[in-house]
Amino acid sequence: MDTTLYKVVFEGQTHPDQHTEQVKQNFTDLFQAEPPQIERLFSGQPIIVRKNLRQQEARLYEEAITRAGAMCRILIQKPAYTATVLDTLHEIPPWETEQPDAPTTIDAFSSKGRLGRVHFITYTSLCFLLAAVLSSTAWILATGSTSIIPQGAAIITTISTCLLAILACIPLQIRRLHDIGHSGWLSLISLTPLTNIPYFCYIALSPGHRGVNPYGNTTAPPSTVISLLAIVLPLLFIIASMLALVANFSNVQALLQQAYGQPAPPLR
């Protein structure tokens, strides 16, 4: 026999097509409660509407709240225990304040949960910095005084490392979008030219939702090291990219001359 117990938690969230005042009236009729109690339900804090419920009972509460125009969550009650006859002798106090969950820990490349701005900038910059270093190394080996690898291999390495960096960043983008309150499917924008640049700026700079949102709880605040890396790594990536461009400018000139039939302007 399943002895797992559940609790129904309400956080004041209503359906987008419902007016809050009408939902409050529906809650008044549903719970037969006084206005102060209803206002407390819509304070924005997680409130336990009912607890010590079987799963089927919790679903009935969820359906009733949904019909009233609001949204709730069903959570497993911890620790679970076996209900006895003694439980029925004590009135369960309704609408007890739910203690918020602890901030979620950071799993860098998981697509579940949320990711704050500082962590996103740090991990994304690290991915692209590694790609820039590998690409630059390939071009140095291909264009040095003694070519170790053909230029074709350097081109393949550059394209491959860029694609790998983008693919590695997709789980990070999904969690960052969750933190802002958007669907992870928007991460596909990163694969489209031109629009991906303002898109990355948006998700990197937009503040996340405070507290719990439909995608989970907020992440733990960044450490001092992560905060410093969020500043240093983007600068290193920009510097490494510029050095790679300068080091291979002669190759860029040759490609432009081949493409447009005229010499490229000299590097100043």
From TrEMBL:
Keywords attached to this Swiss-Prot or TrEMBL record, sorted alphabetically, are: Membrane, Transmembrane, Transmembrane helix
> Which InterPro entries is this protein grouped with?
DUF805 (IPR008523)
> Which regions span the lipid bilayer?
120-142, 148-172, 184-205, 225-247
Which Pfam family, any one of them, does this sequence belong to? Answer: DUF805
Keyword Transmembrane helix on entry: yes
Q: What is this protein called?
A: DUF805 domain-containing protein
This protein's species is Kistimonas scapharcae
List the lineage, top down: Bacteria, Pseudomonadati, Pseudomonadota, Gammaproteobacteria, Oceanospirillales
